[in-house]
Design goal:
21% of the residues lie in helices and 33% in strands. By secondary structure, the chain is α/β, with parallel strands linked by helices. It has one domain (2-245): Nitrilase/N-carbamoyl-D-aminoacid amidohydrolase (4-Layer Sandwich), CATH 3.60.110.10. It is globular and about 55 Å long. It starts with a strand and ends in a 21-residue tail after the last strand.
């Protein structure tokens, strides 16, 4: 059995050291193979402008956050997926990092930016990809990627067993949609969402919490409450995500007819 989970908490905007300390303290005794943290877990979310983001973002190749997380992974023997404000040369990305005992394993840059993120972050430029750790095939997506079924389907076709989904969700139906993604693709999904209200001089945003772990066929193994910290880890059989039969004579990969889906990749404008 494989132990997967999340840590839901309420990051404080701009308080990188405090947020990092909260994560390390919460995971100090965690017994897991893979744990997911929320989107932008160390900086907070609601940036005033690009300049404020650039001040807080870090290059993961030279990051005190990544170094501390890697040390924690070595100490506890697990892997982490975390949201991260990534600085790369003159660009800034809303990223997810896969970190393990050996350090930084993989980086995914969010390709679907939500709301005011579009005013601060650069659009992601990394292909959707799958990394294997501890025999688990891990795919990463970030928050608003949930609305695009193409993301989860692509990760599944690349072999993902577990979709790691750092999030700062504000809409009320995202969690239910991720359960549907698990039905469509017969994968596990870990949505690590933050909670609380981020009050800034330019406005405020309230997040929904309710982080969750969902199994293939959409069974919710655990869903957190909306308004407090929660570290939750479950034991799962990864083999369930490798059986793509939906019925005795139907396999969701083998039964695909891609020749009829070509329009999905064509530019499209909504009729007025």
């Amino acid at each position: 059995m494989t132990r997967i989970g999340f840590f839901q908490f309420c990051p404080e905007f701009g308080e990188i050291a405090r947020n990092l300390s909260a994560v390390i303290q919460a995971l100090q005794q965690a017994d897991a193979d893979l744990i997911v943290l929320p989107e932008l877990a160390f900086t907070g979310y609601y940036f005033r402008d690009r300049s404020e983001l650039e001040h807080l973002a870090q290059d993961p190749q030279d990051s005190s956050i990544v170094d501390s997380l890697a040390s924690l992974c070595r100490e506890r023997g697990f892997y982490l997926v975390t949201g991260f404000a990534e600085k790369h040369l003159d660009r800034c990305f809303n990223s997810a990092l896969l970190v393990g005992p050996e350090g930084l394993v993989g980086t995914y840059r969010k390709i679907h930016l939500f709301g005011t993120e579009q005013d601060c972050f650069d659009k992601g430029d990394t292909p959707l990809h799958v990394s294997e750790v501890r025999g688990i095939r891990v795919g990463m997506m970030v928050c608003f990627d949930w609305i695009f079924p193409e993301v989860t389907r692509t990760l599944m076709l690349k072999g993902a067993d577990v979709i790691c989904h750092p999030a700062n969700l504000v809409l009320t139906y995202c969690q239910q949609a991720m359960a549907v993604r698990c039905i469509e693709n017969l994968v596990f999904a870990i949505t690590a969402n933050r909670y609380g209200t981020e009050r800034r001089p330019h406005g405020e945003i309230t997040f929904t919490g309710q982080s969750q772990i969902v199994a293939p066929k959409g069974k919710v193994l655990h869903r957190s409450v909306p308004d407090r910290d929660d570290l939750h880890i479950v034991s799962v059989d990864i083999a369930l995500a490798r059986d793509k039969r939906i019925a005795m004579q139907n396999n969701i990969v083998d039964n695909r007819r891609p020749e009829f889906y070509q329009s999905l990749c064509e530019p499209h404008r909504q009729p007025r």
